[in-house]
Amino acid sequence: MTTPHPQPADAHPQPADAAIVFDRVGVHVLEPSSDRRPDEAARRTVLTDVTCTLTEPTVTVIGANGSGKSTLLQLINGLIPADEGRVVVDGLDVADRGRAVRRRVGFVFTDPAAQLVMPTPLEDVELSLKRLVRDRRERRSRALAVLDELGVADLAQRSVYELSGGQRQLVALATVLAVDPAVLVLDEPTTLLDLANREKLRGVLADLVTRRGVRTLLSTHDLDVAHDAQRTLLIHEGRLHADGAPADVVAAYRAVVAEESRAAQGPE
């Protein structure tokens, strides 16, 4: 287990209202049902009545597959809209100010292949900068700088198909960091990584919080990684089941899993 991240430096000053606010948030999806007509669907609740205000430099989110973790993260920059309640990022309502929110929030998916669309890492980072930096030389210089910051500048001209899983994850992170987000959201970023690359990514994220002042929020199944935070949320069956210090919330998660295991085994 690593030590908690220190408070961020002033490299990325935060506004006075810097917070991610979930206010009675609910998300529902329509799914076809075998006992309904083909043109009808059943409504399934993914998240319900989620309320919390996140101000910590690093927050981790844990829970079982299908619990609603990824949906919670995707609400933050409007990848998924809330059906009930509202989500506010640094004073900006995601439903009303989605474009402004997305300029503040960078999102890294579990599988970096979802974000790497160009032949080389350098071209991918340059693509991220295209709207922000018009000058081609400056764009290339900034792309190389962020790749160097993450220790993968030597991969700039390599084919993305030749990279390892850990290298691809760092390049995907570089494409997001290039536009200097205030908030970095990562959906299970260590799932596809081996131990060495997992530890490298943990170090990189800790450094970003300390040096850049980027706030990070990440979901994970790795309970060691869950401790890399000042606060942890447990999402269970679409609800915010526990919220607090990482050790306490991880203990609550273990208790939930143990209880469900006993229930599945039935009476002795």
Concise overview:
With 268 residues, the protein is α/β, with parallel strands linked by helices. GO terms for molecular function: ATP binding; ATP hydrolysis activity; transmembrane transporter activity.
Question: Overview of this structure, please?
Answer:
The chain is an alpha/beta fold and 268 residues long. The chain has a single domain, classed as Rossmann fold, CATH 3.40.50.300. It contains 8 helices and 10 strands. The chain has helices spanning 69-75, 98-104, 121-129, 136-149, 165-177, 195-212, 223-226, 246-265; strands at 20-32, 41-54, 58-62, 84-89, 92-93, 105-108, 183-187, 215-219, 231-236, 239-244. The strands form 2 sheets. It has a 6-stranded mixed sheet with strand order 6-7-8-3-9-10, with helices on both faces. The protein has a 4-stranded antiparallel sheet with strand order 2-1-4-5, covered by helices on one side. A hairpin with an 8-residue loop joins strand 1 and strand 2 (41-54). It is globular and about 65 Å long. The two termini are 36 Å apart.
